[in-house]
Amino acid sequence: MYGRAISTEPKDASQSEDKTQPENKTQPEDKTQPKTKPNQKTKPNQKTKSNQKTKSNQKTKPNQKTKPVPTEIRRLDAKSLPLACKRLARQEPKFRALLQEAGTPPLRFTRPGFTTLTRIILGQQVSRAAARSVYLRLEEQAGGAITPEAILRLSESKLRAAGLSRQKTTYITGLAEAMTSGRFSHRGLARKSDEEVIAEITALKGFGAWSAENYMIFALGRPDVMPAADLGIMIGLQELDNARRRPDEKTLRRRAEAWRPLRSAAALMLWHLRDYRQRNSIA
Q1: Is residue 159 within 8 Å of 138, Cβ to Cβ?
Q2: What does the domain layout of the chain look like in residue ranges?
C-alpha cells in the first residue's frame, strides 16, 4: 500500500525545461548536465524506499504489542487475578489503598467436584478453622479420600463422630447419592452460564445461593460473582470503609454493582483485608 506512493512523486522542474529548449544541444557545457540529472532523479527514489521501510515497520509494531494484552478476563487464575485487582484499584481508590496495605490476595482455588462441595457444606455458618477441623476428621473416617462412594459406606454414627451435625450429615449423604445416581454432575458446570450453575447447585438439598457462589469463585474461577451473604466479606467491606456499622447483604450487593465485571476479585480482596487485619490486630 505504502509502496505505491512512488508513482505519485512530482518530477523535477528542470527536466521539463530541458525538453523545450533545443538550443542547449549546441552548447558543449550543457552536454555534461545529463550526468548530474539522473542523480537528482534517484535521490527522491532513495528517500521513498527508506520511507517504505519505516512505514512497514510501523505497521508490524502495533500488532506485536496488542497480541499479548488481554481485553477481557474470562476466568480468574494466577495471571488474571493480579490484573483484576489492579483494574479495581484504578476504579476504586479504597481498593488501591487496600493493595498498598495488604497486597494482592492469595489464590484459594480448589478442584471442582465432590470434595469442594463437601468443604462448602462444612463451612456453612462456622469459622474456617472449625470447618477444616471437621474436614480432616471426616477424611480420616473415609479412609484418606472424601468421595461419594466413601461417604455412602460410612454409617451416620461415624459421620457424626467426625463432627458433622445431623443436618450437615443429611446434606453430604444427599449430595453423594445425587452424584452416584447421576442426578447431579459437576462435569458440565464449567460450560454453563452463571445463572445455570446457580440453578443446578441450589437444586441440591442444603445448597443455597451462598454455596453456589462460593463454588463458582473457588472451583470454576468465575470472575463476576459476589457472595453478599458471606460474613467475612461484610466485615471486609466494613474495614474497607472504616465504618462503625457492618453492611447487610442488600447494602453489599448494591455496593458491588460498581465492581462489575470483576466482583469475584473484589470479594477476594475483601476477604483478604479481613484476614490481614485480624492477623495483624489492626482495628
Answers
A1: yes
A2: 80-106+227-280, 114-218
pLDDT above 60 (res 79): yes
Q: Given a cut of 80, is residue 170 above it in pLDDT? A: yes
Phi, psi angles (nearest 5°) of residue 25: -65, -25
* C-alpha cell read off for 68: 499479548
* pTM for this entry: 0.74
**Mind giving me the DSSP string for 129-147?**
HHHHHHHHHHHHHTTS---
Q: Which of 78, 179, 164 is nearest to 119 (CA)?
A: 164
Closest alpha carbon to 274 in 237, 246, 241, 244: 237
- pLDDT recorded at residue 197: 98
Percent of the chain with pLDDT over 70: 74
What lies within 8 Å, CB to CB, of 26 at 6+ separation is: none
Q: What is the CATH number of domain 114-218?
A: 1.10.340.30
CATH code assigned to 80-106+227-280: 1.10.1670.40
Give CA–CA dist 245/243, Å, rounded. Answer: 6
> What is residue 17's predicted lDDT score, i.e. its pLDDT?
40
Residue with cell 449430595: 175
Do residues 152 and 180 make contact, with C-beta atoms less than 8 angstroms apart? yes
What value does the mean pLDDT of the chain take?
Answer: 83
